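Propose amino acids for all 213 sites.
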């Protein structure tokens, strides 16, 4: 199976098996999505979803969070990874949203990554989920699954290299869903330590499985 055939097989499988694929983070606005994604860096969505209801009740908008102190925000996010830096970045980002963007979440990579604590991956998630743009955020799940399946080669050693390869080969209309396809597949099937290969519907296309067998 060549690379084009592998992509076609993988995409066809996910279109049928996972026609609706969405983020597992809970949010009620673009701002709340941005906050949740920032908190999810090196932290599970499950943990973030435990933290955000009270956080969003206290600070539902950029204006509300911009008026808070870092210590006030930290009290709500203390159980996530890197709480001190995340609390600082959340307050700083909220203030910049109010001062520079009239309280709205911007839609471009350049503007989003100009916010404190927002890197390319976070920006790509927001642009994809909030605005439906064809952006491919590469987290550890996407990185691992892409390599195991053989969607990217050994030379794709960075998240950016993986992102470019996936975007080049996945139809534009599928890219927002494909981000979640790969994340959810990595989270529940193609897990890091003990992948559930015998339960996977992609055995035929998977380089990792076929090298093992």
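Proposal:
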């Amino acid at each position: 199976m060549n690379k084009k055939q592998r992509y076609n097989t993988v995409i066809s499988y996910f279109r049928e098996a996972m026609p609706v694929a969405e983020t597992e983070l809970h949010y009620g606005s673009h701002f709340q999505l941005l906050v949740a994604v920032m908190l999810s860096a090196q932290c599970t969505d499950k943990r973030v979803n435990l933290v955000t209801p009270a956080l969003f009740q206290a600070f539902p908008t950029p204006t509300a969070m911009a008026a808070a102190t870092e210590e006030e925000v930290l009290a709500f996010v203390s159980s996530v990874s890197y709480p001190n830096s995340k609390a600082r970045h959340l307050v700083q980002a909220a203030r910049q949203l109010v001062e520079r963007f009239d309280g709205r979440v911007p839609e471009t990579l350049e503007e989003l990554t100009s916010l404190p604590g927002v890197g390319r991956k976070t920006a790509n998630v927001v642009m994809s989920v909030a605005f439906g743009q064809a952006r491919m955020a590469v987290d550890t799940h996407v990185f691992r699954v892409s390599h195991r399946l053989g969607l990217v080669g050994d030379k794709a050693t960075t998240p950016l290299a993986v992102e470019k390869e996936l975007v080049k080969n996945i139809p534009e209309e599928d890219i927002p869903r494909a981000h979640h396809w790969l994340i959810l597949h990595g989270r529940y099937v193609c897990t890091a330590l003990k992948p559930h290969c015998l339960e996977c519907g992609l055995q035929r296309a998977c380089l990792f499985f076929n090298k093992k067998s």
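Residues 78 and 139 are 23 Å apart (CA to CA). The chain is about 60% helix and 0% strand.
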